[in-house]
Amino acid sequence: MAHVTAAERRPQLVKAAIALMTREGVAAGSTRAIAAELGVAQATVHYTFGTKEDLYRAVMEQLTQNLVDHVERTAPTDGGFAESLAAMATALWHTVREQPATHQLLNELTLFALRTPKLHDVLHSHHHQVEVVTSRLIEEVAERTGHRLAVPAPVVAHYFLGAFDGLSLQLLTLPDEAAERHCLQALVSSTVALSGGTLDEVPLPAA
């Protein structure tokens, strides 16, 4: 059998860990179970990552990058300021509806990292990276549409993401499609208002 380097094995183990924990939860993500998911020896996991925390760090980094890539891909390139924010929020919301297990895993990993000092830095990095990208997209939309932000873009991004996380958790625990759209509508309108827009209802794109 050909030798597989640690650099080659690393993304394979991360993918296996994500698949396993998405399906069965963080608690099931032992190094033994992750190794079995990929069909390798448990020692391979420790050789590649050192500790389980290091593997979890890589998993969080990959999930963060996946989320950031999606947000950037779906960023609107036309429409007014309010319409663009509505399009961004709706595109992000679709990922929660279409990939609930992935968002549940992110929530589980967040709580796990809060109780694991060795993962505090990657947890901070995750939230910081998502906020930086969201802030940049808001600034770009404001510049493209000629909208003058009432508060700095990082403040808008911080508010939007905090409220969005709350709505996402509600969807995961108590889904209500009618209420979800009203709440998402309110989130977009309040974000626009914080940004210096009017409180008039901002229409969401068709579901």
From TrEMBL:
InterPro entries referenced in this protein's UniProt entry, alphabetically: Homeodomain-like_sf (IPR009057), HTH-type_TetR-like_transc_reg (IPR050109), HTH_TetR (IPR001647), Tet_transcr_reg_TetR-rel_C_sf (IPR036271), TetR_C_31 (IPR041583)
Q: Keywords in UniProt for this one?
A: DNA-binding
SUPFAM superfamilies under this entry? Homeodomain-like (SSF46689), Tetracyclin repressor-like, C-terminal domain (SSF48498)
GO MF annotation, one:
DNA-binding transcription factor activity
Annotated ranges, domain HTH tetR-type: 7-67
| Pfam families in the cross-refs | TetR_C_31 (PF17940), TetR_N (PF00440)
Residue ranges for the DNA-binding region feature of this UniProt entry: 30-49
DNA-binding listed as a keyword: yes
Stretch forming the signal peptide = none
What is the name listed in the Swiss-Prot or TrEMBL entry for this protein?
Answer: HTH tetR-type domain-containing protein
Source organism per entry reads Streptomyces finlayi
The taxonomy runs:
Bacteria, Bacillati, Actinomycetota, Actinomycetes, Kitasatosporales
